Amino acid sequence: MPIIKDQRILENTWTFVADDAPLPGGDITVSAQRWTEDKAALSQHAGKLGVRLAPTDNIAALGEDLSLIKLIELNFPAFNDGRAFSQARLLRSRYGYQGEIRAVGNYMADQVFYLHRVGVDAFEVNHPKELELALSAFKDFTVRYQASTL
Amino acid sequence: MYQYNEQDQTLIEERVTQFRGQTQRFLNGDLGPDEFRALRLMNGLYVQTHAPMLRVAVPYGLLASRQLRMLAKVARDYDKGYCHFTTRQNVQYNWPALERVPDLLAELATVQMHAIQTSGNCLRNTTSDHLAGVCVDELEDPRPYCEIIRQWTTLHPEFAYLPRKFKIAVSGSEHDRAAVQLHDIGVYLVRNDQGEIGFRVLAGGGLGRTPIIGQTVKPFLEKKYLLSYLEAILRVYNLLGRRDNKYKARIKILVKETGLEKFIALVEAEWLQIRDSMLLEDERIAAMRAHFAPPAYESAAGSDTELAQRLADDAGFAKWVKYNSADHRVPGYRAVFVSLKEPDSPPGDITAEQLDALANLADEYSFGEVRSTHRQNLVLADVKQTDLYTLWQKLDALKLATPNIGTVTDMICCPGLDFCSLANAGSIGIAREINEALDDMDYIHDIGDIKINMSGCMNGCAHQSVGHIGILGVDKKGEEWYQITLGGSSENEAAIGERLGPAVAKQQITESITRILDVYVQQRLEDETFLQTVKRVGLEPFREKVYANH
To answer: Are residues B276 and B332 in the same domain?
Structure first.
């Protein structure tokens, strides 16, 4: 399934690895828990590394590891769980994270505009027909009030 | 009042376009009911017992006459010829058809109105004092800050999917007329020891199932930090507020479960990180205050001597002036309450014809503006004393001059079982019954300041828990019963009412209320208000009378 990155459609090169699964080759993301517990094995991995955050994960706990992490996936267990919006905001403005932040899971195309504004720059697309809708959502509004976000 | 610039106008028009698309996708089956529910709620659209209910925003209760005319037009063209003012100073329509709502919103947008964030788990309409800018006890007009907050909250990308709804109120006067302590965030304009004006910020207040009075989290906040402080509270709440149980998801539960001290520490830590990056500059405040500059009052108005004679000559007029008007900071002017509590009409309702007529009266007598109050009445805030008599006659002809503001028949009432799909019991019918039982205006005036708030269910839209007399509709095996509380208040001495006893049956509620009033009349000392008597004698005398022979 393709993804949207910087408002363009791209092929996804990343694989999320479950906590109990062996590490495959290529670019992988793991849970925050596995990141903390398995850091030694992960540092030997040949591909790029990323972390998939749950809404309950504390960004501060990633600390200095952020420079090693090339992708942070913010997982939506349900579209109305809005913690990912603050997580993205903190990653960009507080921790200066420059890598890719990708929305994954049960978010809606209608949330793309807000997600983009808090610093999410990539979107896993759950269904091909969502692609066009999600791409158009970047243009839902041409104006904004809050000066401190994108 | 605040006038939209091009950006403001573009934003609400783009929201109409976005909502039109969302509605279309839902109707086509491309958007699931749960997803559409969240999206439509954030645009004020509920699905109710009979039809969708649309809640239109009236930011801090301020309306221009052309907006009133548009509300009338919408009532005629999309509804059944009337609308309803809510306890959040907003307007509700009970009968619009879902597929026509985008068109309705497009019409509202032509007069700088919208339904953005009037429902849903997001930042709601900022409310304020309906006498802001004209009252005699004000430190500073709160409306410029309300508008600054309105803009900050509107489409805030980080806080659109909060654990639960979030309400902010601002007051700048000594007497709290905005129920500030019962909001998720309450803001009072205050002066510190150095003589500077800033804000006292409260958090964790709220009504609903678990009514809690807000607590001070910042005794004095410099003006320039207003938005950064609000943002810090919201970020802490968004990340830590409970999402596992919707009845424990409001910020009041977070504050309670975390503990006030620790909650404040969390907010302060967050605030220190952001406060210098989002300063509210003096120029911005000054520019916003210019939007709320006083109108061109006539300096000669103060030399009026006619009113005293009119008051002496006409007892009906004198009563109306006493109950339905308030002192104004400018000599020769008064603020006039337009009562939406006419006995035969559901509390807060107004017809399209009344709206149109009122718009004309606003143009003629009050600089073209009207305010809505959180007690579901309207205000013409800048009326010349010399115009009062004529205005009274005109309002009376429109059935908008019932002299009952602040009295027992000035009830707050939700739509109840008649309209709302959440309700357990009727409220409008009970309000009518109570009105019928209390048909003697002299008696009503004699018993004075008694606030009855009545909600048809635990959600408490009519703020029953802070009514001097609170009435809560409950369902008992399919029958409508009513729980009574006494001693609540949403003003400076905010208090949650205490339960009188077991719920009473529908056929006994009105008599229970009249018995409560009887007890007050028997027990009161000279000049003692209902609330003071309840405080002094406690609930027992009321209990004895209400539950005798029941």
So the answer is: no
pLDDT band at A88 (very low <50, low <70, confident <90, very high): very high
Tens digits of residue pLDDT in A15-70: 999 999 999 999 999 999 999 999 889 989 999 999 999 999 999 999 889 999 99
- Number of structural domains (chain B) is 4
**Integer Cα distance of B409 and B444 in angstroms:** 8
Mean pLDDT in residue range B282-310:
94
Q: What is the pLDDT of residue B48?
A: 67
Q: B116 in a domain, yes or no?
A: no
Distance from CA of A57 to the nearest CA of B (A): 10
Q: Say whether both B366 and B438 belong to one domain.
A: no
Pick A140's closest partner by Cβ from B18, B158, B231: B18
Amino acid, res. B12: I
Query: Which of B158, B243, B272, B277 is best to mutate for the A interface (most A CBs within 10 A)?
Result: B158
Residue of A nearest to B5 (CA): A143
| Whether residues B520 and B426 fall in one domain | yes
ipTM rounded to 2 decimals: 0.97
Please give the sequence-ordered ranges of beta strands (E in DSSP) within A17-67, or none if there are none: 27-31, 49-53
Contact yes or no for B90/B56 (Cβ under 8 A) = yes
- Domain of B536 in residue numbering reads as 412-547
Residues B228 and B310 both lie in one domain:
no
Domain boundary among B284, B307, B329: B284
pLDDT recorded at residue B303: 87
Nearest alpha-carbon partner for A37 in A57, A19, A63: A19
Residue of A nearest to B244 (CA): A81
Asked if B427 contacts B455 with a C-beta cutoff of 8 angstroms, the reply is yes
Q: In this complex, is the C-beta atom of B394 within 8 Å of any C-beta atom belonging to chain A?
A: no
- By Cβ distance, the residue of B7, B238, B277 closest to A86 is B238
Domain A2-137: assigned CATH number:
3.20.20.70
Residues 15-54 of B with CB under 8 A from A: 15, 18, 22, 30, 35, 38-39
B155 interaction partners in chain A (CB closer than 8 Å): 114, 141, 144-145
| pTM (predicted TM-score) | 0.95
* pLDDT-wise least confident of B45-49, B307-311, B424-428, B469-473: B45-49
How far is B183 from B188, CA to CA, in rounded Å? Answer: 12
Residue B50 confidence (pLDDT): 63
* Rg, C-alpha atoms of chain A: 15
Q: How far apart are CA B375 and CA B68, in angstroms?
A: 18
CATH (domain of B315): 3.90.480.20
